[in-house]
Amino acid sequence: MEEMFCFQCEQAAGGTGCTKIGVCGKQPDVAALQDLIVFGLKGVAFWAHKAREKGAIDRDIDVHMIEALFTTVTNVDFDPASCAKVAQKTVQMRDKARALFEKANGGPFKGDVPAAAGDWKLPAGQAEMVALGRKHGVKAFHSDPDVNSVQNILLYGCKGMAAYADHAHILGKDDPKIYGFIHKALASMLDAKLGLMDFVGLCMECGKTNIDCMGLLNKAHIEKYQAPTPTPVSIGAKAGKAILVSGHDLKMLEELLKQTEGKGVNVYTHVEMLPAHGYPGLKKYKHLVGNFGSAWQNQHKEFADFPGAIIFNTNCIQRPGDQYKDRLFTWGRVQWPGVKHIDGWDFSEVIAAAQKAEGFKEMPAKNILTGCGHDAVLGLADKVIAAVKSGAIKRFFVIGGCDGAKPGRNYYTQFAEKLPKDTVILTLACGKYRFNKLDLGDIGGIPRLLDVGQCNDAYSAVQIALALAGAFNCGVNDLPLSIVLSWYEQKAVVVLLSLLSLDIKNMKLGPTLPAFVTPNVLNFLVENFNIGPIGSVEEDMKQMLGA
Ligand code: SF4
Ligand code: SF3
């Protein structure tokens, strides 16, 4: 018998699913506890959705929903004790949501209550919780494999969106519509009357709602830190003590910058924190000195060489090596058993660990560019439009998405290298580390490689595409623009749903197709959106360039 089953990310073992231990390092007990959390959240959603229909909402329930979903995203929480706590709170929230509904309804619900929303009790012991979770795995969602597939796409879309909603919430921005949609989506999975096309529709709605969610986060970032501007970032090091920040959460970085000011500790960004350097409200801190390392999957080797403290504020954490485990910290939803978790906003332990560590010797190196969000790119709109009209820019390529460990991901490096010199690349998310150190030059002062930002800044890339379509008086699909995506985890799933919800066609997806998409569902996507897997660099490029 399988010890676990998880197929939510691109690393799924054998391209079908992890059954013994996650390729990511997720243990069977954590997998089962996360399945139990999802089962419980469907119950919360059932009641919260019904209460919302009656005009009753509750902030604790809404916030728990996004935090708990975020907990189950790939490479976030590997700690069984923390997952068990999230499961406990989920059951409390289910009861709270039920009471909220009953109050708004003026009495109990008269219809059938699905099992997930019933008053099942959480066993006291962790082993019993794990046993219960094993009964509610992702294969058990629906007996029809295609409906099961689309329900999983919807769930992963909600998980990805929940991560973005959590960042926005931390910055004080909440949108009841986003919470309401997540409740509706998870509650729908308990509704036996719904069929395949209902869930396809919900997936499209998920994508649309996520555009609003990424927009909310974009607004939160810009209001707090001002719009990013193109900024060169050193990939070398300054002599002195050091802290490395990995993840996506800008507020956490800001608090750390405040607390390290004047302490002789320099702060470096890792992976998806790179775009932080583009925000005036963050780059004003002189001790935010550079970007260290490459993409997340190389952390084991690279962190051993980082002579300071390291903190993760979101995915993607991997099993820590002994060389750096004692100077590694987690924050927010991220947890790893045995790694010190900072609960709240006091980073003095992290700073103390940095001061105890050796620190860097001066290591000068080149700069890379970030901060090319829609404000910056659209600031160059006249120049860009003129370059397209004169033929100096022949085509734009969005090469975006996640990085990962599989060898097939060299495709993205080669693609960027081989693109003709009259093309411009817009990139976002951590996949850029495959090519962001290449010197690709510029076209009449427009850099050929524009780093739009984090994966959530797909919002910004969409704004650029819509503005170009407006300027050329055409649809996005008619622009000289091709999209080549790399995916790894559930945030990439929701970004893809967002692009599909905008009816963007002809995208290429790699390095492999998701294990949770059945052949019928894939056919549907191909027929309606002409989405296809990446092939050979030369063939794909030839097709996109129309040569
Ligand atoms: Fe496997 Fe990915 Fe699930 Fe981890 S998150 S267990 S690697 S499918
Ligand atoms: Fe990367 Fe984990 Fe997805 Fe925000 S940091 S994109 S994989």
UniProtKB/TrEMBL annotation:
Record has 4Fe-4S as a keyword: yes
Highest taxon of the lineage: Bacteria
Q: Where does [4Fe-4S] cluster bind?
A: 6, 9, 18, 24
Top-level EC class: oxidoreductase
Family matches, as Gene3D superfamilies: 1.20.1270.20, 3.40.50.2030
Where is this chain's protein located in or outside the cell?
Cytoplasm
What Pfam families does this protein's entry cite?
Prismane
Q: Where does hybrid [4Fe-2O-2S] cluster bind?
A: 248, 272, 316, 402, 430, 455, 489, 491
Main localisation? cytoplasm
- Cofactor binding annotation: Binds 1 hybrid [4Fe-2O-2S] cluster. Binds 1 [4Fe-4S] cluster.
Write down the InterPro entries for this protein, in alphabetical order.
Answer: HCP/CODH (IPR004137), Hydroxylam_reduct (IPR010048), Prismane-like_a/b-sand (IPR016099), Prismane-like_sf (IPR011254), Prismane_a-bundle (IPR016100)
This entry's Enzyme Commission designation comes to 1.7.99.1
Q: Which cofactor names does the annotation list?
A: hybrid [4Fe-2O-2S] cluster; [4Fe-4S] cluster
Per the UniProt entry, the signal peptide is none
> What catalytic activity is recorded?
A + NH4(+) + H2O = hydroxylamine + AH2 + H(+)
Modified-residue entries (Cysteine persulfide), positions: 402
Q: Which UniProt keywords apply?
A: 4Fe-4S, Cytoplasm, Iron, Iron-sulfur, Metal-binding, Oxidoreductase
The name this protein goes by in its record: Hydroxylamine reductase
Q: Which organism is it from?
A: Desulfuromonas versatilis
Q: Gene for this protein?
A: hcp_1
